[in-house]
Design a protein that fits this description.
The structure holds three protein chains of three kinds. Chain B is of the alpha/beta class. Chain B has three helices and eight strands. Helix content of chain B is 18%, strand content 33%. Chain C has two domains: 9-45 and 358-367 and 374-411, no CATH class; 49-341, Cytochrome-c3 Hydrogenase, chain B (Orthogonal Bundle). In chain C, helix 2 packs antiparallel against helix 3. Chain C starts with 8 loop residues before the first strand and ends with a helix. The chains are: A alpha/beta, B alpha/beta, C alpha+beta.
Chain lengths: 153, 182, 412
Amino acid sequence: MKLDRYLDILTKSIWVFNCNSGSCNGCDIEIVATITPRYDIERFGMKLVGTPRHADALLVTGPVTKYMTERLKRIYAQIPDPKVVIAIGNCANSGDVFYKSYNLDGPVDNVIPVDVYVHGCPPRPEAIIEGAAKAVLKLEKMKEELQKAGAPQ
Amino acid sequence: MTCRPEYVKESSDPKEVVACIEERFGEDVQNLELREYKGGLEDAVQYHLLWLKVSRERFLELVDALREFDFLHFQIISGNDDGDVVTLNYHVALFREAGKGKRLGACVSVEVPKTDLVMPSLWERIPGVEYSEREMREMLGIDFDGLPNKALVFLPEDWNEDIKPWRRDETGPSEADVRELS
Amino acid sequence: MAVGAGKTYKVPIGPVHVGLKEPITAWLDVDGERIVDATIRPGAIHRGIEFMARERNPIQVIYLAERICGICSFTHIECFVRAVEDAAGISVPKRAQYIRTIVLELERIHSHVLWAGVACYTFGYDSAFNLGMILREKVMDVLEVLTGNRVNYGTGTIGGVRRDITPKVEKVLRDMITFYKNEFDLFYNVATDDPITMARMRNVGVLSPEDAVKYCALGPTVRGSGHRVDLRWSQPYEAYGELDVQPVVPQDLTGEVYGDVYDRFLVRVLEVYQSLEIIEKCLDDLPEGDLMWEPNLPKLLNYLKRADGTGVSSIEGPRGDDTHVVKLTGGEENVTWWKVRAPTYANGVSWPIMFRNNDLADAPLIINSVDPCISCMERMLVTEKKTGSKQVVTRAELLNRCREKTRKVMGA
């Protein structure tokens, strides 16, 4: 992996917005545990922001309930390009135990396009950090392509 | 009627409560049962629960009779679709603040015929029943007489109100409404 | 926003917002900075769990039950399993009862420390938040050694528990108790002796004792208003019959009851000390014996298939009483119906009461004080009715307002 080349393009660390679309909160607690001093994703510069308009990555948890489908799509539309979507937990990947219901609209990739899948119920904070690292690499590629297509620096 | 505004500190014996109910209601109360629960190292009796079934006409009277002992704490209404009736179980509790092992929980069952799905509401006596009664309304289709706010509580706004998720007959969700995720 | 006579604005909060078990939408009627009234609309996390249980046998429903909530997952397993044992007439061996009690108390500690940290974060005390999170990692380590996972441990089963407390686990547990006795005092003093904390939380979000009774509040919410209500005392289950557990109320420590956020904070912090004592006593008295009523799974399923009856159980979770009702029918393998009443369901009815006459800046703190789970606060839309203009206020700004008030209190 040519690290120098990638770090040239990386102008700032990615900022993350968390959206809970109907989960049991287990994955959300592990996300909060990731920013606390033991696992500390903040040493890489990543932080939880309060609005999607400042974010680079979207963390989604939970199988999407019918109430949250519209809102999830709106949040996705409000994040400026280039963006990554990370689906955290088994519920967001495939529905987990909730596989047949009258009020669920499917796993997250039925609603918005997903880039990184992190498995686990809930995934350990180390797994979330690995997922975030893969998202950084993917974001670099996206930024590179945008620059080649003529976007300003 | 005498109703306590807060929890009593001294409880009555569960058998006294049972005797009072049997005396006042006689035939209209069926399946009266006082269950004991054991546990711990010596397998001692830890607490009691009261189970009974009452007819719909005398339901409010029974609630008021129980409220004379203590402020009736309401927990939840559970229910099921049983063919031509809908059974509702009201889970309530007495003597919450009275002493170790003195709490008396009760389960009051009422059968509501499907031809006339109306029940009197407990909202004026116990305002905490609001969410439960709204939930029973949207899930089983029972109307509560006297409940001011009858909006949907758990289902989304664009839900088709003719489909009642817990019913097992033609008003329940059909195969098309239930989606398999994976 | 101008403060005018008779002008109230409807401020929507949610659905995805801080400190809530379900992403809930709330509309606050605001006059200037004072909240006049509030309407709550739940329903964003309704997954149809009780409907899904109709196609599963009781053992499969255990894994569905623990994913109702990630913070009190063992509480839901315990409650469901006790309801099935009530319906089917199964008795639990003594060692399993004590192990269940220990795991329940460990979960209570982890939930209360998490809540205390998040409450401090809400009004700006970031260092207390980080300190609380470091302390909480100790409990997560113990839970991982005992059950195998940090969250959603599938330890309970119908008729007992699945994992034993071996001498290695016991040593880790006792180390944790010693650690907490030394270190938790620091957090307690930092959070309660601080005058800013007291100024920020006193007389905010008051729930009077009469209202707490009328609206059927539960757990630390009703204990913070002065009532001695605790299911571990008034309806003891598992090992609590032999332990002397008294309800923790604020008047035992401070002498007066206000029913505000500070009282609920105090109740939860004191309950952590109570839980440590309970765990120590259970470890000392742990009896020998089997772990399960029937270790052979097909035999257990066969027995449950023939069982018939309705069972109900209520236990004291970290947030209040949790109630499960189960009906089993003879001859059918699947559960006939199942009803869950989680404690936030009942506590949510008393939110509009607590919101009245408080500042808008206190809204996140009041939502948090009833202890829903973690989520994040989304954007707020402030509309001015007369001109129809809209102004979007983000979560960062709402949280900032909460912290600005703290700075004003400090500076003034």
